[in-house]
Amino acid sequence: FRGDPSSALLEVLDPEQNNTFNDHYLEVDLDLSEVMFVATSNTLNIPGPLLDRMEVIRIPGYTEEEKLHIAERYLVPKQLKANGLKPEELKIADSAIRDIVRYYTRESGVRNLEREIAKVCRKVVKEIALAGPKPAKKKASAISVTSKNLEKYQGVRRFDFGRAEEQNEIGLVTGLAWTEVGGDLLQIEVSLVPGKGGMTLTGQLGDVMKESASAALSVVRSRAESLGIDTDFLQKQDVHLHVPDGATPKDGPSAGIAMATALVSTLTKNPVRANVAMTGEITLRGRVSAIGGLKEKLLAAIRGGITTVIIPEENRKDLAEIPANVTQGMKIVPVRWIDEVLDLALERPLTPAASGSGEKLPVREGGKSPAQEGVKH
Which residues are marked as active site? Predict the structure, then answer.
């Protein structure tokens, strides 16, 4: 009895019939043929026929620097005025705003950031009121909120963001994930346990991500000899692949190359570089395919202290849309094949056993592959 908004919008947006749209409440016909409709949504979970009548314009979330500038210019002055504070009574340092963004909000916009700034202002008002009036001749000193005393006004940190590992480790790869509230680092762990060739996947992975893990394992098995791995490594062992933060559902194909790298690292006992992160889908031929959400993923890498990011060659064109200051000081390496990923990510070069002998031969002849040159910012 409340009506169906999607059905009403279907009729409104249909150019064949919206010139005589009938409003059932007013009981009048309206000509909406010359009206431009602008709709907003946080997700694209919209009925297909309705979505087909719209042109989708994706607006990326704010970067950390953009949030900082918005807070300085608009949010802080607005909340000072709303809470009856003068600019000389409260100073919020840039470091405090940055920590609020990182540890007290998790969003692509600034709505919660404004709420947290308002919370600081209210606590400062209370502090001033409890301190009592100052003598007329004594000038009131400004209260300064910095990253050091922020917990006094905000309480214990509610969120954390992924950070790069401190040292190179075997079987641990840093992937990059896209979420509705921005990018994040995604740790992928692989270990071998006694068994009969099974594969265990944990971490609340979705169907697409499970298929990516299966594809990554098949790529490693098909290239075992060239990677210096025993071809029957699954005869007496099981593979366990885990993605931490098990309470959070995860899905998508973009962790394919990270899974393959973790598998190779574990099987060859070759540590993965801690300062390298990667994103890309993998095919059975070992080709690296395009992914989405590149800007958000790069922002997460910078925030986490990553210095080198491996991306698919097909995403090179997307770098033009990312501001230079976002990737400043980071090395971004577009790649086409998993071999290039392994060259960049593993601590030691891989050396396959020569056929019929115990000698070791290099995977590639000397010299750098095109991918190793990278794109420096």
Answer: 254, 297
